[in-house]
Specification:
Length: 426
């Protein structure tokens, strides 16, 4: 059968069997975020295009190639959100959160949209869970963020994670570092791919973000020729260096495994100082499970007062792929009861089903099938117990509880039913 409609390229349906794992992961995450004292924020799925263009960076892939930009019927220039941080910063300003408390700890979860080429682990509609601390420039805020980041992964059963960390300094030190990068790349500049060449002019730091194997080979060639790649960490101003050292010290004090990656540049341009990521090599090219960092200039860029911030987002689609590969993190399926009725007890069965559903997971036949067919249905649905509402037993005020695990059955008075079920299913 030729279908008239398919889900758009890069999007997909999540069906109940998959969602069981997603829901488990989401509820684990909510638990961790609540214990850390973060409050949930929900922002619109679309915003003014300019909000993202101004914050993600004019030369970032997100803005130049990946924005779902559209004009609505009122001629407004809008975009589906490619990420959550800009929206949180906008809401922080618009709703005057700065006047209510100095530090805000916020989290969010939901779909994001980027028009990138779909491949394993990369979708056009994907899902993030993210957290932000707005209002503190202290290194302790960066450390708390990274601890929360790691603790979320631990709650999903990841262990031995190593966080890659770097400092991308301030816009001033980045300009200076950009010059050093340009000088370093000058001998091979004419051989760089088109994207990198463009970036060398507009935003040299982004050149380090290239995935083009020929570019990477050119970098290697320079290093082999005795010209080590300049490190941003060597260009830091003294305050950023002090901040960086305190963050590393804080991570050590908490025993959080980390590795300095001097080449780590994030895909969005709003970062200052700390940047971090975790990768899972089993995912191949799209291996970043999540990342984040500090963004001390973002809120000011949106017209607000100078307000520091730090945060991260985790890609749930990729995280779920890893959990699925490991067959980890499925929820414990609660026992299910199947209520099976005879001709004369159908109305009673419907009532009993409704009553039991206040406490238990209960299934029943919707189509007045014969008792044999109902038992098959119960078996196929994976029910643990069947309640047989035989006409004679029901008339006597009794119900038969049949175990589908061992086939054993027991007659219990209706008045004792709830207690008997609690006993059997606990
Ligand atoms: P990001 O690194 O662009 O950061 O995205 C975070 C995570 O989202 C990635 O590590 C990846 O797991 C997932 N992700 C991104 N694009 C896709 C895609 N096309 N398909 C599937 N997963 C994807 C941010 O978005 C920042 N807002 C993080 C942040 C928060 N920084 C400070 N606060």
């Amino acid at each position: 059968m030729a279908l008239k409609h398919q889900a758009p390229l890069g999007t997909r349906d999540l069906l109940p069997a998959e969602l069981a794992r997603w829901q488990w992961a989401e509820s684990q995450a909510r638990g961790v975020l609540e214990r850390y004292g973060y409050g949930e924020i929900r922002t619109p799925i679309f915003e003014d295009y300019e909000l993202f263009a101004r914050t993600s960076g004019e030369s970032s892939d997100v803005v130049t190639k990946e924005m779902y930009r559209f004009t609505d019927l009122g001629d407004r220039d809008l975009a589906l959100r490619p990420e959550g941080t800009a929206s949180v910063a906008r809401a922080y300003l618009e709703r005057g959160l700065g006047g209510q408390a100095r530090i805000h700890r916020l989290w969010y979860m939901g779909p994001m949209f980027r028009y990138s080429r779909p491949q394993k682990g990369r979708f056009r509609q994907f899902h993030q869970i993210g957290a932000e601390i707005i209002g503190s420039s202290a290194p302790g805020a960066d450390v708390e963020m990274i601890a929360l980041f790691v603790d979320l992964f631990e709650a999903w059963g990841f262990s031995n994670l190593t966080v890659a960390v770097n400092s991308v300094g301030t816009p001033g030190t980045r300009r200076e570092y950009g010059e050093r990068l340009r000088e370093w790349l000058a001998p091979v500049a004419s051989d760089l791919g088109g994207d990198s060449l463009q970036r060398l002019i507009s935003n040299p730091l982004r050149v380090l973000d290239t995935k083009d194997p020929r570019d990477l080979e050119l970098f290697d060639k320079l290093v082999r020729g005795g010209a080590p790649m300049p490190r941003m960490l060597d260009s830091l101003d003294s305050e950023s260096r002090e901040h960086w050292e305190q963050v590393l010290g804080g991570l050590d004090a908490l025993g959080i495994a980390h590795r300095t990656d001097p080449g780590l540049v994030r895909g969005l341009d709003y970062y200052t100082r700390t940047a971090f990521e975790v990768h899972d090599p089993s995912l191949g090219a799209q291996s970043a499970l999540g990342g984040g960092g500090r963004y001390d200039g973002l809120i000011e860029a949106l017209g607000g007062p100078p307000t520091p911030g730090v945060g991260f987002s985790i890609g749930l689609d990729r995280t779920m792929m890893v959990l699925e590969q490991r067959a980890a993190g499925g929820p414990a399926v609660p026992g299910t009861i199947f209520v099976a009725a005879m001709e004369g007890t159908r109305a009673a069965a419907a009532q009993l089903t409704r009553e039991l559903r206040r406490e238990f997971r209960v299934d029943c036949d919707l189509e007045s099938r014969a008792i044999g067919a109902q038992l098959k249905l119960a078996d196929r649905a994976g029910a643990t117990l069947v309640l047989l509402l035989g006409e004679e037993e029901w008339a006597r005020g009794e119900v038969v509880i049949k175990s589908l695990r061992d086939g054993g059955q027991k007659v219990v008075p209706r008045a004792m039913l709830l207690e008997a079920l609690r006993e059997r299913l606990k």
